[in-house]
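Q: A reviewer asked whether we had any structural model of the full assembly, not just the individual parts. We don't, so I'm hoping you can provide one. Inputs are below.
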Amino acid sequence: MNNWGIALDLGIRLGVAVMIGFFGGLLLDGVFGTRPLLTLVGTAFGVAAAMYTIWDVARKAMRR
Amino acid sequence: MVGALLASAILLISTVFVRRRGTLVPGRFQSLIELPIEWLAGVVKGTGGKRWAEFAGLVIAIFLFVLVANMIGLLPGVGVIGTVVETEHGEQELIPLVRAAAADLNFTLGLALISFVAFVAWGIRANGLGGYLKELLIAEPAYMTPLLTPIHIISELSRLISLSMRLFGNVFAGEVLLAVILSLVPLLVPIVFLGLELIFGFVQALVFALLTMTYITLAIAEHRQHGTGDAHPGEAPDHSEASPAPSRA
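A: Here is a predicted structure for the entire assembly that you could use as a starting point for your response.
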């Protein structure tokens, strides 16, 4: 049942991670006036966080 | 908000009823209340590890609350009876008296925050505050910290957002779907979609509760991997569930 929950969770977390990075970067760009630099950096971090999430979930699932 | 209050009232009244009139051999109403609790307690016991009893109450409470709130959203009159107001653009808009609680992002975000605080708190109890912050903020090898820390933080925050958005999206989409179908074919056909919404309401409540349990279990399991302080002195680490600690990349 745990794995079922993790599988349901993983898909949406990937999208959400990219969105957090993108909107976080957009917000910081607005604050510092560096548009579009921080938006791009934030999106890159978001994509990296999505990949990290897959790896992290797989690692923890294998541990259990 | 009214939907959430109604769900709370139903659960509170049911609790008081079972506490006062509960019998060893349950009647129909008592069985109706006990059945989901016993079933989910069995699930938590089976998959929640040794310390399942500590968080079973929270998981079951979240499940019942979301389930009842979702079921209230399917009652006749919910979402369609209210006051009509005129907007700034001259259009008429219905403000429902009661609507499905989870069709409001405030409700789902609030629940997700409770869940988030719970699994962070269990992580801190298991690892200690220093251990938790080290896990979150300091990467191995240390020179990767500037790169990996934002990634860790985004990954943690994605749990909170995904929990709230999933429940909100499903329930809100269900509400819109029912409204569209009712306006297109008012007879018979909506029954099929109401049936589907019943199933989705149950599944979404279960998913929310199970993910809360999964996150808490992972927070505790992580502590076992690192072998740091324990909130429960005297309890032996559960090596049956966790293999010897591999290093964290």
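A: Points you may want to mention in the reply: Chain B touches chain A at residues 43, 46-47, 148, 150-152, 154-155, 157-159, 161-162, 165-166, 207, 210-211, 213-214, 217-218, 221-222, 225, 241-243, 246 (CB under 8 Å). The CA atoms of residues 48 and 217 of chain B lie 6 Å apart.
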